[in-house]
Amino acid sequence: MKPEAGTPLPPYFGIDPDAAMAALGAPTTTQGFGAIARACEIGRDDLAGRGLDAGGRRQLRMFSTWEITRYLIPVAQAHFRRVLKQNPDLPQGASETEGGAKWFTLDEVLRLRAFFAAEGSKTKPYLPYRPKGLPAKMLAVANFKGGVGKTSTCAHLAMSAALDGYRVLVIDLDSQGSMTSIFGGRVADEWQTVFPLLARHYAAHLRIDNQRRLDRGDAPVPLDETLTEALTVKADSLIQKTHWPNIDLIGAQLNLYWAEFQIPVWRMQSRGWKLWDALTESLSADGVLDQYDLIFLDTPPALGYLTINGLAAADILLVPMGASFLEFDSTGRFFDMLHSTFNSIEEGENMAARALGRPELSFEWDAVRALVTRFDGNQQAELAALIQGWMGKTLSPQRQEFTALIGQAGEQVRGIYEADYRDFNRETYARGRETFDETWAAVKALVLGSWRRDEIEQSQEAAQ
């Protein structure tokens, strides 16, 4: 059957080979990749540079009285203004026009929140729950399926926690460095990433192992220049301040991927090295777990050694996924790989533990939850309901929707909490951030529940 007269042919018909050859251009060489990378770097710096201050640093926007009283400090606007008037030593905010709305920095909001907590109603939750004497909770966000919003989810949860008043550390374990870019981090090489902490942990183990070798009359394994230098590195030297006053960062960059090759070499040299404990024990030894309330770990989209370190360190594991067959299938395979990997580690370690009469290794997480991201209720509601039935409690019932606010924030290289609501109308802004507020509420409930359980166990142990 011939196409009707006047009906255009599909675009893949009638392509002229000579015209295609002319448009093709010269072949690409290895050097061509470098040119493409440089062009992308120029563009990336330009995009990331939007919103920088005069010193070239990212700058967090200010927050209005309306926004503070609705989202950050639970008081009426009239009462908020009255308290400021009665306490001139408190931050008074700045107006862009005479008699206009007052705007405050997040630093000022945190000071105001502390004042309300000390002087205001004791029945209102001005400060977030945080038991004394317990370490920070670590939350890993992981999935080896790309495009599920892993880094975006991790970043927004960190921002949510900061707005809630928590002291937050973000650790980027992904050599792509997307999380580092979101928070304006500058990382020159792998020595400004977690790499030296992992190397230091191995070097400390190797020193002990070498002493055993000497005691047996065997030759020790020499510490090379990398391991010797790593022994001098502390976590504090790797932590960067960000444009958020209560979010700090240990960043990542491409050279961090070298750890995926170096860690198995170290493991072969010294089979007794517990590589999965490297990140946890290094952070603990350097006091990081006491300096912060929450630590968010953004992992690579693969189950490599860096991801294993992040997952083993985590108290809570969050797995973003889309409500589609392929993403559900991939996430199921991810959980299967987690089972195989950690079961294999446990079996290998416990064979020796049983033979030596030592306690057996058993990995444990306070909570593991899958989160549906980039959700379209018009098209995915039925499948999401089916997935909920199959996964049960493991799948958080909250759906993180994709809205215009999220899209615009992504285009401008910032989180949705960094978007100025005046760029929208208030209703659009409120609706756009609501889905992330609900996600944070679900995750915060996991954090508070696990802290409370730890608090009760600690109290019971003290009583005994």
Total domain count:
2
Cα shape: globular
CATH classification, class level of the largest domain: Alpha Beta
Number of strands: 11
Order of helices and strands: HHEHHEEHEHEHHHEEHHHEHEHEHEHH
Radius of gyration: 26 Å
Largest sheet: 8 strands, mixed
Domain AAA: 137-328
Protein name: Chromosome partitioning protein
InterPro entries: AAA_dom, DNA_Partitioning_ATPase, P-loop_NTPase
Organism: Gemmobacter lutimaris
Protein described:
The termini are far apart. This protein is of the alpha/beta class. The chain folds into two domains: 63-119; 137-463, P-loop containing nucleotide triphosphate hydrolases (Rossmann fold, 3-Layer(aba) Sandwich), CATH 3.40.50.300. It has an eight-stranded mixed sheet with strand order 6-7-5-8-4-9-10-11, with helices on both faces. The protein has helices spanning 17-24, 30-49, 65-72, 77-86, 106-119, 150-163, 178-182, 195-216, 225-230, 259-269, 278-285, 288-291, 305-313, 325-356, 377-391, 404-411, 426-463; strands spanning 63-64, 94-95, 102-104, 137-141, 168-172, 240-241, 247-250, 294-298, 316-321, 367-375, 395-401.
Topology, please?
Blueprint: H1 17-24, H2 30-49, E1 63-64, H3 65-72, H4 77-86, E2 94-95, E3 102-104, H5 106-119, E4 137-141, H6 150-163, E5 168-172, H7 178-182, H8 195-216, H9 225-230, E6 240-241, E7 247-250, H10 259-269, H11 278-285, H12 288-291, E8 294-298, H13 305-313, E9 316-321, H14 325-356, E10 367-375, H15 377-391, E11 395-401, H16 404-411, H17 426-463
Parallel strand pairs: 4-8, 4-9, 5-7, 5-8, 9-10, 10-11
Antiparallel strand pairs: 1-3, 2-3, 6-7
Helix pairs in contact: 6-17, 8-11
Protein name: Chromosome partitioning protein
Domain AAA: 137-328
InterPro entries: AAA_dom, DNA_Partitioning_ATPase, P-loop_NTPase
